[in-house]
Amino acid sequence: MGLVVQKYGGSFLENAEKVSKVARRVIEAYKEGHSVVVVVSAQGSTTDELLEKAAEINPKPSNREIDVLLSAGEQIAIALLAMAIEREGHHAVSLTGYQAGIFTDSNYGSSRIKSVDAERIIKELDKKNIVVVAGFQGWNKYDDITTFGRCGSDTTAVALAAALKADRCEMYTDVAGVYTANPRIVSDAAKLKEISYDEMLELVNLGEKNVLHNRAVELARKYNVNLIVKSSLDDDPGTIVKEVGTVERMLVRGVARDNDIARIAVIGVEDKPGVAFRLFSLLAKEKICIDIILQSIGRDNTKDISFTVKRENLNKTLDVINANLGVIGAAEVKHSDKYSKVSIVGAGMVNNAGVAATMFEALYDAGINIHMITTSEIKISVLVDVQDADKAVKVVHDKFNLGEVK
Amino acid sequence: MGLVVQKYGGSFLENAEKVSKVARRVIEAYKEGHSVVVVVSAQGSTTDELLEKAAEINPKPSNREIDVLLSAGEQIAIALLAMAIEREGHHAVSLTGYQAGIFTDSNYGSSRIKSVDAERIIKELDKKNIVVVAGFQGWNKYDDITTFGRCGSDTTAVALAAALKADRCEMYTDVAGVYTANPRIVSDAAKLKEISYDEMLELVNLGEKNVLHNRAVELARKYNVNLIVKSSLDDDPGTIVKEVGTVERMLVRGVARDNDIARIAVIGVEDKPGVAFRLFSLLAKEKICIDIILQSIGRDNTKDISFTVKRENLNKTLDVINANLGVIGAAEVKHSDKYSKVSIVGAGMVNNAGVAATMFEALYDAGINIHMITTSEIKISVLVDVQDADKAVKVVHDKFNLGEVK
């Protein structure tokens, strides 16, 4: 008996039948004697529908009003799930982000949780209510509604689990857990029993977007939340995400692929301090997230700076750079959206020199050309041609015998 | 220059085009130099769609959760209207019932405003923002969302106008104002320039439901709010609703018809104290609203009690009575939903003996049978066969020459 936080994404609440199914799974945990807090996203396509409505009225609405609009989506979802739980004869109470005490900063549209006041939730749990909380939303110092940006319900769940000192935080997905590679690409991909927060963070960043949101994993690590990624379809125990010291250090935990990247190369910038700062602060102002950054020595005492962004941001990025060519002082700007990023992640590789070489060997044997390489302590990423990406994942997965992971 | 509260119902916000149209009308008032607060209902059929969703999941959801669900409808509407105002280059800020400081009692689904703390609205008006407030919703002492029941946005508008000491409160409708009769029934029905709160209250109760909500008129009378019913389609000044002392006392201000009634007759109850109390407190417990009540002397030292309810409540009412026949002690219960109520309203009739007789004469001349009569100081109502109702309205309207009202 303890306190369990469960999180269900919007696809689990698409229609009445699915909402009732989630209700029954929630009640199962309640019947086992747990106090249960459920965090949900807006139903299925609600968020997109609301954004469409907005776009018809104003192509550039303020973020404040978008937050008022979108938060209504989760509000609908919590009410419906609470009703479904009531229907099964149990007591439920739905709470908006404000009611759940989720206090955020004031970056409308992409706010971050500053603190959680769990008093109301605790009061409701004490009354033996199942508490249904709207994910993705909070409240700021101006008494305004804020939202966290896409996938923010994961963050809500982890933040509540931390504030409530929950025994576990279960993230329901449509897969059984975290795999050594995407099973749709690699047929013998193995489900991991456990993974460290750090490895999970790298995997999140590396394109396994459906599994867990980055910010949620960071929070879980910070507050040592017992995070479990599991399927809502069966009783498989899923994958436990925990502290690096408590999981077996594997050389390579998994292989990830990200096709949603575009590479920009700013060539021949002056080799003096402040160039990178000017370039990336211009992009940050436009809220363009940068993934990989590489700076190399160019010709004639100049530097080349290459970096990747999401494909949807390619044009915007080029616009910013071209509008500021004078400030940046580049000889040439190149770009391509024909690359994919393939990465291996594993907390064990930090102490093992041969990992990178083994990965490159696998790619070489398969005749796959590498366009860019970056490494961190627990990750090695390469850019390859987009048509080679799936093959690259397979051969690397094979090379490290990841199909045999148990 | 002053402060104007405008209220638009959901039919004015049905689609992007209509939302933009409302935005432009709001901005017109703002450009005239007024501070503007706009109260809106949920878009078009949103409320019904949300209720359908709920019904699929739980045929009897708790009122608390219905309120969470339905209030999302207004939240969507305020965000979209604020975006439309932004689109036209003006500053707008949307506020939910809570943010607007609308504090209510805890009757989920049919709550009443207890107080309004207008601090936030005033702050936004001081910043020259157009303030868009969600109608129909508030907040209670448990920190829960409450709603007012259908048409509650009228009440929000009047309550805010009272709290803000607004110069006027404009209720936009799809008609040009209040008429001497429904123009769809009586072709020469005349638009009234003004009407007293009391008369308006009786008209509201008498089936002109689209014009103004009862509770809103009561509030307007209590706080002496300068209420204007007008069309959003043109610049007609509409009908001003004001204190009885300040409007010309007309014998008959208008004729109303209500087809949505069912009559129940409880026959042969014992003639002793407490019978009416027992009967109507049972119905009140089930939240069944009673309209007309008539008690007459029955046979053998018994009494007959007749009353009317809304048609949708007929079966529920009969269930309650039949389940409590022992307590009520009736010999027989009769009912009919084949009647309509036709009423004349006028603050002047209190001092004029002939009004009732004139009405009955008109009906007699037209061969219309009267089943029940009730009178108040400013109203006379009769029940007639439903198929006679429109004709009754016409002949009474004619008899009092209401088509000549200016």
Low-confidence stretches of chain A: none
Structural class of chain A: alpha/beta
Strand order of the largest sheet of chain A: 3-6-2-1-9-11-12-10
Share of β-strand residues of chain A = 25-35%
Gross CATH architecture of the largest domain in chain A = 3-Layer(aba) Sandwich
Note the main sheet of chain A. Answer: 8 strands, mixed
Provide mean pLDDT of chain A, rounded. 89
Which CATH C-level class of the largest domain in chain A is it?
Answer: Alpha Beta
Q: Which percent bin holds the helix content of chain A?
A: 25-40%
Largest interface: A-B, 40 and 40 residues
| Number of separate structural domains of chain A | 3
Number of helices of chain A: 12
Write out the CATH superfamily name of the largest domain in chain A.
Answer: Acetylglutamate kinase-like
Explain this structure to me?
The structure is a homodimer of 406-residue chains. The mean pLDDT of chain A is 89. In chain A, the strands form 5 sheets. In chain A, strands 3-6-2-1-9-11-12-10 form an 8-stranded mixed sheet, with helices on both faces. Chain A folds into 3 domains: 3-173, 3-Layer(aba) Sandwich (Carbamate kinase); 262-336, ACT domain (Alpha-Beta Plaits, 2-Layer Sandwich), CATH 3.30.70; 339-404, VC0802-like (2-Layer Sandwich), CATH 3.30.2130. Helices cover 34% and strands 26% of the residues of chain A. Chain A contains 12 helices and 20 strands. Chain A is globular and about 75 Å long. In chain A, a hairpin with a 5-residue loop joins strand 7 (137-139) and strand 8 (145-147). The two termini of chain A are 29 Å apart. Chain A is of the alpha/beta class. Chain A binds chain B through residues 15-16, 19-20, 50, 53-54, 56-58, 61-62, 64-66, 68-69, 71-73, 75-76, 78-80, 82-84, 86-87, 92-94, 96, 98-99, 120, 143-145, and chain B through 15-16, 19-20, 50, 53-54, 56-58, 61-62, 64-66, 68-69, 71-73, 75-76, 78-80, 82-84, 86-87, 92-94, 96, 98-99, 120, 143-145.
